């Protein structure tokens, strides 16, 4: 382990040697992990940005577990089956304990789903009509129609303890979470550190690492420095400019993995847009949306801004996912071509361009501020003046939640750990306020009845091949209509000290339960 970790253990041993057996101290393991930001909240139904998600999955468990390679298997449910085309039966593991010692019951699952339906994350339960406790270890979940993807969807729903939530209330739950997960919250000093301790009665067996400290360090250079000095054992999102430096450092390993996170540019398509001082919003015209797509030089962004550590997005979901269309490539359909982009602007009646604001983060995605600045100069070539509205992610999500008040053009990321395009399309592109739980993060107000119909068909079959076919048609429609421009998938970059056993996950959820450290 790192010098920092070794010294910390020696100090811990010296301090508590009288009170605790030596063998216990010798066997204790700890790790310090540097994240790009602090969680925003610890209530798993109050938000889902990455740093919060990482904590959720340490403290809570889902019925169905997603492993590091997006394979799905038993979690709190040991098995499941179809009772009929609209009813699934889930059998819970017996004897699973919450951190407060209570035993998991089917009623906790029902409570979780009912509460979720009234939360800001209700989109996660859009395809659940009802949940019923048959007995303490059996839950029936009904879907509005035949729905093949329910087990995968349940990997994103983390189970709460009904009695605890009712006793502490929503606000307290966001600060003091309590679940069945492999770790319990010990301490959270916001913007400084969050400490977890292994839960001894975890149903999967006690974690190998006893204490996990997460430190939010937003500045990339500071994260790298903390890694090199031994202050951190593992670092998330190593800065692309520091990769070669870290590789050259003895005792440090750099690990990379293609990310699921797709950087997207969302275009407002309402008749009147908040930051465009024209009577009609130019982006209601598909030709303008295509011009924007053709004006963006993705290859240059990836080479110059990302140091080659990104992959151009061919579609809205990666090749591994249900709904991906073999051979289709957004950037081949709309290649970088400033001359053609100018022609399209002129054809649409906007030869002189227009001005609008780009809302983007400056601390959420890899080099997000630099990407936004690059977009400014690229779109200027076709007469679109971008005013940058950069903000930390802590402000960003609330700001873009109500596009009717604020946003015309948004840069953000989206990933689909369910492995199924439908979860993304239903949330981002389904017409707003048309169907409960659908279109809830449709920040562009995009609405296409043909797309809605395809998504309805996909969500109304118990056959995955049929679902895939409907979602592929939806993908083709979206590629043609251009409600958003997919830019690139990030390359997840981590670095760790020797002695850390760590394999990055596809979904970027650092999970200490899968890790180990040498003594």
Alpha-beta content class: alpha+beta
Termini separation: 7 Å
- Gyration radius (Cα, Å) is 24 Å
Give the count of helical stretches: 17
At CATH level 3, the topology of the largest domain is: Dipeptide-binding Protein, domain 3
**Overall form:** globular
Number of domains: 3
Please summarize the sheet with the most strands.
Answer: 11 strands, mixed
Helix proportion: 25-40%
Mean pLDDT rating: 92
**CATH class label of the largest domain:** Alpha Beta
How many E strands? 19
Which architecture of the largest domain would the CATH scheme give at its second level? Roll
Would you identify the regions where 5 or more consecutive residues have pLDDT less than 50?
A: 1-25
Q: Indicate the proportion of strand residues.
A: 15-25%
Q: Explain this structure to me?
A:
- The chain is of the alpha+beta class and 519 residues long.
- The chain has three domains: 3-42 and 172-258 and 492-517, D-Maltodextrin-Binding Protein, domain 2 (3-Layer(aba) Sandwich); 64-166, Dipeptide-binding Protein, domain 1 (Alpha-Beta Complex), CATH 3.90.76.10; 260-490, Dipeptide-binding Protein, domain 3, CATH 3.10.105.10.
- The protein is 31% helix and 23% strand.
- It is built from 17 helices and 19 strands.
- It has helices at 3-16, 22-27, 50-59, 106-117, 150-153, 162-173, 220-228, 243-247, 286-295, 298-305, 330-333, 338-347, 368-380, 393-400, 421-428, 449-458, 464-481; strands at residues 30-35, 64-66, 72-74, 77-84, 87-92, 130-135, 138-142, 183-189, 193-198, 211-216, 234-236, 252-267, 310-312, 354-361, 384-391, 409-414, 484-497, 500-501, 516-517.
- Strands 1, 8, 9, 10, 11, 12, 13, 14, 15, 16 and 17 form an eleven-stranded mixed beta sheet that branches. Strands 4-5-7-6 form a four-stranded antiparallel beta sheet, covered by helices on one side. A two-stranded antiparallel sheet has the order 2-3.
- Helix 9 packs antiparallel against helix 12 (338-347) and helix 16 packs antiparallel against helix 17.
- The protein is globular.
- Mean pLDDT is 92; it is low at 1-25.
């Amino acid at each position: 382990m790192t010098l920092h970790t070794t010294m910390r253990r020696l100090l811990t041993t010296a301090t508590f040697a009288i009170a605790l057996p030596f063998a216990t101290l010798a066997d204790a393991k700890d790790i310090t992990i540097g994240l790009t930001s602090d969680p925003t909240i610890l209530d798993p139904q109050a938000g889902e940005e990455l740093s919060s998600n990482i904590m959720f999955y340490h403290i809570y468990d889902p019925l169905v577990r997603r492993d590091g390679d997006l394979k799905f298997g038993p979690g709190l449910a040991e098995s499941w089956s179809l009772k009929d085309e609209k009813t699934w039966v889930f059998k819970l593991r017996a004897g699973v304990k919450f951190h407060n010692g209570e035993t998991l019951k089917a009623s906790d699952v029902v409570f979780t789903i009912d509460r979720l339906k009234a939360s800001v994350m209700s989109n996660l339960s859009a395809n659940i009509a009802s949940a019923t406790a048959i007995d303490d270890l059996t839950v029936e979940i009904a879907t509005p129609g035949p729905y093949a993807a329910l087990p995968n969807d349940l990997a994103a729903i983390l189970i709460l303890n009904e009695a605890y939530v009712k006793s502490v209330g929503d606000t307290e739950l966001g600060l003091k979470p309590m679940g069945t997960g492999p770790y319990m919250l010990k301490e959270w000093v916001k913007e400084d550190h969050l400490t977890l301790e292994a839960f001894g009665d975890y149903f999967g067996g006690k974690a190998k690492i006893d204490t996990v400290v997460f430190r939010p360090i937003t500045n990339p250079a500071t994260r790298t420095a903390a890694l090199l000095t031994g202050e951190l054992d593992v670092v998330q999102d190593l800065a692309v400019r520091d990769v070669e430096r870290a590789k050259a450092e003895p005792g440090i390993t750099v690990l990379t993995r293609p990310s699921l996170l797709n950087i997207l540019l969302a275009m407002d398509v309402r008749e009147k847009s908040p930051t465009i001082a024209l009577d009609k919003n130019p982006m209601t015209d598909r030709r303008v949306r295509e011009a924007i797509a053709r004006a963006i030089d993705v290859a240059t962004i990836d080479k110059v801004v990302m140091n080659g550590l990104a992959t151009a997005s061919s579609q809205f979901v990666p090749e591994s996912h249900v709904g991906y269309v073999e051979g289709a490539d957004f950037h081949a359909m709309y290649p970088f071509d400033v001359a053609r982009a100018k022609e399209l602007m002129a054809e649409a009646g906007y030869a002189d361009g227009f001005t609008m604001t780009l809302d983007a983060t400056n601390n959420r995605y890899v080099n997000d501020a630099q990407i936004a600045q690059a977009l400014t100069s690229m779109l200027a070539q076709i007469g679109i003046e971008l005013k940058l509205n950069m903000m930390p992610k802590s402000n960003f999500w609330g700001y873009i939640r109500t596009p009717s008040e604020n946003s015309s053009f948004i840069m953000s990321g989206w990933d689909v750990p369910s492995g199924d395009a439908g979860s993304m399309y239903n949330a981002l592109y389904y017409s707003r306020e048309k169907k409960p739980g659908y279109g809830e993060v449709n920040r562009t107000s995009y609405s296409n009845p043909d797309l809605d119909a395809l998504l309805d068909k996909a969500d109304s079959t118990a056959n995955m091949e049929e679902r895939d076919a409907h979602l592929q048609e939806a993908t083709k429609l979206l590629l043609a209509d251009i409600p958003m421009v997919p830019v690139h998938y990030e390359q997840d970059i981590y670095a760790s000290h020797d002695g850390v056993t760590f394999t990055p996950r596809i979904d970027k959820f650092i999970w200490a339960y899968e890790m180990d450290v040498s003594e």
